[in-house]
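sanity check this record:

:::
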Amino acid sequence: MAQPYISAIESGRRKVKTAAVRARITEGLNVPQELIDAGQSDSYGRWEPSPELRERIAHGHRTGRTDLRTADWIGEVLATQRRAEDEVGGADLWPVVRSQLDAVTRLIPGTSGEAADRLMLLAAEHAHWLSWVAWQNQHRGAALGWLDVAHGWAVDGNHTDMASWVQRVRAFYSRQSGDPVRALRTAEAARHVTGASPAAVAVAAHEAAIAAAAVGERDRARRLSDVAFIDASRVPDEADRPGWLYWLTPTRAQLQAASVAYACRDWRAAAEGIRAALPELEGYPRDRAHFQQRLDDAERRI
């Protein structure tokens, strides 16, 4: 299959309409057999987590041997899907990601020890992604349900960065629901998870800063913003951050600082920070539009 044709599919200019083309793509990607039918089951289109998933995880520490090559492949695919969601949204990817999670959890009962912990992290990453997409599509109850599942798997697998991240996302949900006091408390808890990496602490501190500004604690917000920026600056390379924090580049850290300045009504600092970082958002149309709107507003208020 020619690269221009593949690029057209990726950009949305062309649609895959025939089974033959799907089969060629599947073969070219070396898709594991258990994922060939991904997205074909009606259950994969439902927003809420199923009881079967919770039951499967409950048996996660049974002894046995499991071939983890499928999990490795799924992890690589999820990394690509995170980036795709940034550009096109996640609703169309939902059935595929949901089926991948099902494949991961089917492996867990046959594993133990570090292998089981590794699968639980992968399951938690999927559950968090599903939570985020559900929230963006106004399925708030389902989003919270998936977040609960993700947090449980993160804790069971002793993955401190994911546990911190899930709490940070919960804080974001609380703030978006009009409860900044709860958001601040939850974000502070996320920031102080023992063993969390600088990247995890950075995003939690940023959320705490935004929540602090929302409750009128602007000095506290500025201090937390400084903490977030310093910690993010410690991990400028993607390889040094958890996979789900691939986006925490120096540019994003600068934009987060500008967002706190905006929340604190420091209009000049907000405008300067956004203006400097905006050119780096060319590949992210939704984010660019959001920050352009904030820049325009901040400049009007100076």
